[in-house]
Write the structure tokens for this entry.
Amino acid sequence: MSNQYKVAVVGATGAVGETMLSILAERKFPASAVVALASARSAGGKVAFGDNELLVHDLATFDPSSIDIALFSAGGSVSKEYAPKFAAAGAVVIDNSSTFRYDDDVPLVVSEVNPHAARNRPRGIIANPNCSTMQLMPVLAPIHKAYGIERINVATYQSVSGGGRSAMEELGKQTAELLSFQDIHPTKFPVQIAFNLIPHIDEFQPNGYTREEMKLVWETRKILEDSSILVNPTAVRVPVFYGHSEAVNIETREKITVEQARELLGKAPGVEVVDAHAAGGYPTPVTHASGKDAVFVGRIREDFSHPRALNLWVVADNIRKGAALNAVQIAELLVAEGLPPKAAGG
Ligand code: A2P
């Protein structure tokens, strides 16, 4: 009988947590039990797990000693306090927050790109990248390997689901209020998000970039294992519910043509090329990405203003590949490496 694991999902009532549960069920993860954890206010409620429901437990009073694998997506402060406790109790923690991502002794893993990194986890913690970096990596890694990427210019168009359930509610509420000529009162976002764009995600840094932008710089270098790559990002929140889009320009050491890029990306795991020069022949969050696992890439063009540069349009479901799916794929790497479950035979 193959190994069976006891899995905890921390933040199970959140936008990412509920998708982690549905992906665990959908991919038939070899779990002997799945435990849903959230704050005390949700404890006693239910969340969906495939065709079943799970009772939600209070994280604060939960004993992690029987857990083999814990998927965390309950925000940075929860990860900071509880991930080390779960790891000390012998669980492997896969953490979706940014708390540990930049620590040298915590691997940062995109399952198709650097799965080998997941094996070296001295603290028992593996970090899941930020959604905007995540979707870029399966596209850029094969190009970097074959042609060498020197510089990345990227502008993101990030959906509100990246800000959690309350952010989605704010977009819905503001849209309804504005369409019925009522006043709006932004709480989650700094300014109106409905019918607007906000070039500000996460905190401003001393260099004038936001932390969301700097995540693209730090994480790209760590995942591609190349600190020489230059990254120049602008991160923008847009009034889209699901799916992040990115306008990407890469400068390469060796010239890459559109045909070469199409061929390489056509074979890249987790990537789908959608690039017809016709109306609708390109990926959009709504028509392609939402609810799907793949990262979609289109609008592949040689940059006519530069001798060795390529333009790409990259779209993915930020909650699935950008967060929950990759976390489950990391858990699948643990299964493949033969992580011994605590309770033999599950
Ligand atoms: P709860 O629903 O009980 O607040 P989102 O990012 O979509 O807003 O979701 C955040 C997730 O993190 C939710 O499941 C939320 O649970 C959970 N969470 C937030 N704060 C805590 C906490 N202090 N302890 C446990 N879970 C928490």
User: Anything to note?
Assistant: Residues 11-15, 17, 38-39, 41-42, 59, 74-75, 78, 164-166 surround adenosine-2'-5'-diphosphate (CB under 6 Å). Residues 167 and 189 are 7 Å apart (CA to CA). The two ends are 10 Å apart (CA to CA). Residues 320-337 form the longest helix (18 residues).
